[in-house]
Amino acid sequence: MHIDDRGYQFADAVYEGVTVRHGRMVDLEPHLDRLWRSMGELRIAPPMDRAPMRFVFSQVIAKNRIENGFLYIQISRGVAKRDHAFPTKPVASSLVVTLKRLDVDGVIARAGKGVKAFSEADIRWGRCDVKSTSLLPNILAKQAAKEKGGFEAVLVDKDGYVTEGSSTNMWIVRKDGVVQTRSTADNILPGITRATLLKLAAELQIKVVEEAFTLEDAKGATEMFLSSSTGCATPIVELDGQKIGDGTPGPIAKRLVEAYQRYMDA
C-alpha cells in the first residue's frame, strides 16, 4: 500500500467481506451489487469490471488453497497527494483482495450456544448505508462490549431505538412469534446475510416485519439474534446482563441457522 493511498490517509474507501464455503463464494452477486452501490455513492471509479474481478477472487481462492474462508475486498479512491478534496487529476482506484481461513463449523457451533451483547450509543456518521472503511465508532463500540465480556455491541440511537450491531444486523422475536428487524430504509447497512435470511424465513413461513424496535423491546423479546456474513444468525442470549427469553437459543433462530447452513452447503 502506498503511503498516499486515500484509503490509508482518509478511510476514503469501501469494502466487502464474502464467506467462502467449500471453495464457493456465498452470495457473491449481492455482495458485488452492494460494492458497486457503495462506490457509486462515494464517486469511486471501479478498478475493473465485474467479470475480471470475479476472476481475481477465484484466483485468490485457488492460490491460497482455502476451502472455507473469508474473502476481504477493499477499494479506495487511489493514490494522490494528501488533500481532503478529491484529486484534481484522475487517478486509478486501488484494489486489495485477501483471503483468510474461517471456521464456518465453529460459527455454527457458536450459534448453538448463543452470545452475550451490550448496548452502546450509536455515534456513527449519517451514511451507514454505505459500506465504508471509516469504522472507528464501530471499533469503539465493539471494544467496549468486549471489555464487558460481550461478543457484540448493540447500537442504540438517541431515541432509544436499536439500529444495528457494530458489525451485524439485529433481529428480535416478539412474544407473538413475529420476527422483527429494522428496515434498511432507516439508514442501516443492507446486510447480505440479512437479505438471505429474509428469503429463508419466507420459505419457512416465519412472519417477519421490517420495523424499528427499542432497546426495551429487545430486552423483553423471547429471542434476539444477530446476522452477518461471518455470524450466520447467532442468538443473543444475554443483553446488558439480562437474559433474553430463557437465556438459551430459541427455536426460530435455530431454524434459521439450520436453513442458512443448508443454503451455504447447497
Task: Summarize the structure in words.
The chain is of the alpha+beta class. It is built from 8 helices and 13 strands. The strands form 2 sheets. Strands 5, 6, 7, 8, 9, 10, 11, 12 and 13 form a 9-stranded mixed sheet that branches. A 4-stranded antiparallel sheet has the order 2-1-3-4. Strand 8 and strand 9 form a beta hairpin. The chain is globular and about 60 Å long.
How are the secondary structure elements laid out?
Layout: H1 6-10, E1 13-21, E2 24-25, H2 28-42, H3 50-64, E3 69-76, E4 94-101, H4 104-113, E5 115-121, H5 136-147, E6 152-156, E7 162-165, E8 169-173, E9 179-181, H6 192-203, E10 208-210, H7 215-219, E11 223-228, E12 232-239, E13 242-243, H8 251-265
Parallel strand pairs: 5-6, 5-12, 9-10
Antiparallel strand pairs: 1-2, 1-3, 3-4, 6-7, 8-9, 8-11, 11-12, 12-13
